[in-house]
Design a protein that fits this description.
The chain is an alpha+beta fold and 305 residues long. 27% of the residues lie in helices and 27% in strands. The protein is built from eight helices and 14 strands. Helix 5 runs parallel beside helix 8. Bound molecules: copper (II) ion. The site of copper (II) ion (CU) has 6 residues, from loops.
Length: 305
């Protein structure tokens, strides 16, 4: 387990604040920029409500929202959302989110979670078992090559619950990323390499591969954000899932997979290490690459066997 100590924490904060952030803004994310200075100008309120209509062409949801104490009484109004949330929204769905009052009186929602009690119960139960498992394992929580991957259940980019059982009989290539990662050589590069593996594994005749990227930043990376992330990169999600879920569950997975994270002072940027794992059909960890220097073939060769 002390292998972890050899990792290098990449200090991204300075870099990011020096102007790297601009690179990760995209047109369709106008209302969820990671520009720290700008965020302070916005007014934010937690909000709950129900989707009355999905206004695709306006990029907005019509929401019957509950009272926001000290700010707004209950009413039905329009909110701008990002393209992923728009794609996942269904008429009648309950949601919780953060309302943002932007300058110019434009209202938008971020951190949107569409509520589904049955799904939430499943994810919460899995998070509870994972918590217990992590604390029982204690200092031995880190899973070495040769050990099985832990059980978990998280939400994918479509808001559906994905549990480890779904991958039984599949080879899994797994890593951790976050959508706002401002360092080109870290998460954005990892995602490109995962995409390259997806392509070359297919070309090599590997038919039972599932690629899985779990967010390091579940507070921000909702299913809708991950949907936006996948779609904007043209990722084929047929066997490539982006997962998010309860913060506690993610933390336990990071512990078990030996990935270190640290939030910077403004809490919006994470410093983190990188780990990419290959898990076989029996759920056993068979290969692991730390850092970003691994090669596509290194993994594909192991998948072919
Ligand atoms: Cu990153």
């Amino acid at each position: 387990m002390f292998k972890m100590l050899g990792f290098t924490l990449v200090l991204v904060a300075t870099l990011a604040l020096a102007g790297g952030l601009g690179a990760c803004k995209r047109a369709d994310q106008g209302n969820m920029t990671v520009d720290v200075a700008g965020e302070q100008d916005l007014k934010r309120h937690p909000i709950t409500g129900r989707v009355v209509a999905v206004l695709k062409e306006r990029g907005a949801l019509l929401v019957d929202h509950d009272e926001i104490p000290g700010f707004m009484s209950r009413m039905t109004m329009e909110f701008f959302v990002n393209s992923g949330d728009l794609a996942l929204a269904k008429e009648g769905a309950k949601l919780r989110a953060v309302l943002i009052e932007e300058e110019g009186g434009r209202f938008s929602l971020e951190k949107v979670w569409f509520e589904d009690p049955a799904a939430q119960a499943m994810v919460a139960a899995a998070a509870g078992s994972l918590r217990q498992d992590t604390s029982i394992r204690g200092r031995g929580a880190y899973r070495e090559i040769g050990e099985n991957l832990p059980d978990f259940a998280l939400y994918n980019q479509d808001g559906a619950v994905v549990s480890v059982a779904k991958f039984r009989g599949k080879q899994i290539m797994l890593n951790f990323i976050f959508s706002r990662c401002p360092v080109a050589t870290m998460c954005p590069a990892s995602t490109l390499k995962m995409m390259a593996v997806q392509t070359s594994a297919k070309a090599a005749g590997v038919t039972n591969l599932e690629l899985v990227s779990i967010t390091l930043d579940p507070e921000y990376d909702t299913p809708g954000i991950l949907k936006t992330y996948a779609v904007s990169r043209g990722i084929d999600t047929i066997n490539f899932s982006f997962l998010t879920g309860p913060e506690r569950a993610i933390k336990d997975l990071l512990t078990q997979f030996g990935v270190l994270t640290e939030a910077t002072r403004d809490e919006s940027i994470l410093k983190h290490t990188l780990a990419t794992l290959l898990i076989n059909e029996q759920g056993r960890i068979v290969w692991r690459a730390d850092g970003s220097a691994w090669l596509t073939d290194e993994f594909v060769e192991k998948m072919k066997r």
